[in-house]
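RETRY 2/3 - previous attempt timed out on the joint model. Re-submitting the same 975-residue input unchanged.
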Amino acid sequence: MSVYLLRRLIQAAGVVLAMSIIVFVGVFAIGDPVEILISPDADQMERERAIAALGLDLPLWQQYLIFLGKAVQGDLGRSFVFNEPALELILQRMPATLELAFAATFGAILIGLPLGLYAGLKPNSLASKGIMAGSILGFSLPTFWVGLMLIMVFAVQLGWLPSTGRGETVEILGTRWSFLTWDGLTHLAMPALNLALFKISLVIRLTRAGVRETMLMDYVKFARAKGLSPFRVTFVHVFKNILIPVVTVTGLEFGSTIAFSVVTESIFAWPGMGKLIIDSINVLDRPVIVAYLMIVVLMFITINLVVDLMYSVLDPRVRLDSK
Amino acid sequence: MADTTNTSAPTLVAAQAAAPTLEVRNLQTHFFTRAGVVKAVNDVSFTIGRGKVLGLVGESGSGKTVTGFSIMKLIDPPGRIVGGSILFQGRDLATLSEEEMRTLRGNRIAMIFQDPMMTLNPVLRIDTQMIETVQAHEKVSDADARARARDALGMVGIPSPDERLKSYPHQFSGGMRQRVAIAIALLHRPDLIVADEPTTALDVTIQGQILAEVQKLCATTGTAMLWITHDLSVVAGLADDIAVMYAGRVVEYGDVGEVLDAPLHPYTHGLIGSVPSRNKRGVPLRQIPGMTPSLLNLPEGCSFRARCPRAAEDCIVMPTLHPWLPNRLARCHHPHLEEVESA
Amino acid sequence: MSAVVGQGAPIEDPAKVKVETPFRRFCSEFAESKLALGGLIVISIIIVVAILAPFISPQDPYDLAVLDIMDGRLEPGAQSGDGAITYWLGTDDQGRDMLSGIMYGLRISLTVGAGSAFIACMVGASLGLAAAYAGGKTDSIIMRIVDLQLSFPSILVALMILAFLGKSVTNVVIAIVVVEWAYYARTVRGTALVERRREYIEAAECLALPRYRILFRHLLPNCLPPLIVIGTMQVARAIALEATLSFLGLGVPITEPSLGLLIANGYEYMLSGKYWISFYPGIALLVTIVAINLVGDQLRDVLNPRLQK
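RETRY 2/3 succeeded.
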């Protein structure tokens, strides 16, 4: 197990390093921040001073090594716009994004699993067909479109839910959270549902396919032949088997949930790091872009690692192989 | 083949006289598919007495497995039991509710499946799968249930059962898994075990061991057994009676020794003739010409008519399961009676 | 414009490449699903409307000279100030007729979506074919990149490209191509690996035909059915991605809005109840994407050799 873990860690580190080169070269080699950051009226002297101050006069590989050396110490540069450490900017906004992503993920499982289970157990009922049609829509509709429709219906027409912001927050462990107050929850509901939509469809499909496949297995028939109650057959024998792919995929999707929160945060003015990155791309605030991309990539790789380990906990067959 | 060890007196009469453990009468199970009605089981009758073993023999697709599942009432849509009765100790299972049936399953009637690699849930430990079976039918503590499970594992010859209980199915070989499945079937000392080709997927040596174990268990506990198989040699060594199925119907039924020595039905005759054996070396194997008819639209009259060497014009009328000899039934207008007399 | 035509092509062409099944059979199998047939009709109408937009739209929404700011944010059905046109779907904040805006927006959305999906298909199919045919190191390098890229969400990859290159229509196309090529590459490689073991490739190799000929004349046509299926789906995804990026303000310029930008423009007025500026372009986008997906779904059923009777 530890050899396996070590190998995975080295692999992950390799990917992070490769991504850091891609991100650095991509962001620093193309485009010219000088144009944006320094006023066109500035004379040659001022320009050069500014370029030197930003370290933009050095050769690219040297800039990369400096960047890498600082990055290891947690310094990803200062935002050109806010004149604050980029990493700090990102970290300040990360809890809001994480809260949204977690709410969406839990929502997806909470909504998707029962619906998928129902559709799998009663595949021919009208409700199941409706569920499946809905899941196709959930897959193909762009997130931002659904977000707008949610606002139009629930905020504008019905006036039930607020459309923007995080609402009232409570401070725990030095960060503010919305889900602990009623007002915060009402603010969280729509963005979370919006972000969860794609994942709900995914969970429904996975669960349904899993149930249909598992129900045909001999071990389910054997469980029934043992005289177990239908409840136990469904919720122990079938459920535990479909939980593995569902948990794996939902876990792997967590990274993409964070990435897609860019869209949801823009619609619902949710003050997370997704909104920050869009603004930063618009003004070419390179350190923030780099910091965001690096952090998301890092999270991604961590998530993949964690899901892999969780998978081995859930599935006894894998556990044996990896030992 | 002819030389079987089973030379006991005909069991049919004895079984019918005492209250039989299982009596299936004119069972019909059909599958209502989009292509049409598949009559998988179409008039099956047999009786199994206490402690007796009935071998249910037939080719794949003859309806023997569906018969087994019908007795368990585990036929899923689009399949349905459409006729007949399944009398278990005098109670008709066909009329029982699902909940009443559930209390019998795994308790009074147990089933062993064909493929041991597929019958145990891969993500649940052996102890979970055994203890849940105990607790599904009796209110016992976890510790007592575990003790029962351990004893059952010991009974089927699994060494160090305490450790094995904590294992997952994938840590067992196929033969060991089948022993576990048998142990699960035995947990409540059932009155009837439906065994659906339980040794087909196993190596010959393992098969022998398991057959011996099962035979011993049946004899000691008085459990009746329906042994479904396509392997005549297994039936010859294990069963008391034999029922041969063809295209969803029982075509021959009787004492296993007598039937195998001198089959009445041309199909049984062909079946036995097509088994390779040392005695017949050099002699070309006989084969039954043609193919099994589609269960979707069975031909009129005797289903075996088109392949039968003895078919005549009257075979256009479906024959009944007729007692041609004492304790010997066959569904045929022209049975091989002459061979019985010469034998 | 040519890209719009290209978008129609992958939907109608499969019968021509499916040598073993006549065009008629393909059509009748496709038409078995009334839903898919409806989708195909809707797509055809949308394409025609997009092509003919300059001739049938009530107004040129990009000509700032004809836009009257006084007609801004009029309700659906309202008349223009001079009474010349009726704004059936209302106007946006600049007095642009929404119906005309949607027609022109469809042109941009379809061109960008289908065009980038087409380029991605070319790039991905070539690389996938090369990977399958060359095998060895080429294969493992290409597939490593594919795997790595597919493990990242499309929006992140697109954001990365736009962060590198800055925002513009060309860069949106590049971003979509970079996001999508990997799907084509994986599909083509998978099919090609199966196909290249078939006798007809061996026969072609025995005849010592030039390699490019074997690749493009023998191998590629046999990889087309799955390529057409994912191609259709990817056009829908490309349109959605373009709309998303435009909505985020990273795409097409504000003077020539695509559907996504039209929706974004109307977004701020939605909260004050002026729903139509966002709503109708949104419906146009929805109908386009759903119709393409319906067609793609049925294409998959018809072209999937495993399901074929």
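The mean pLDDT of chain A is 80. Closing ticket.
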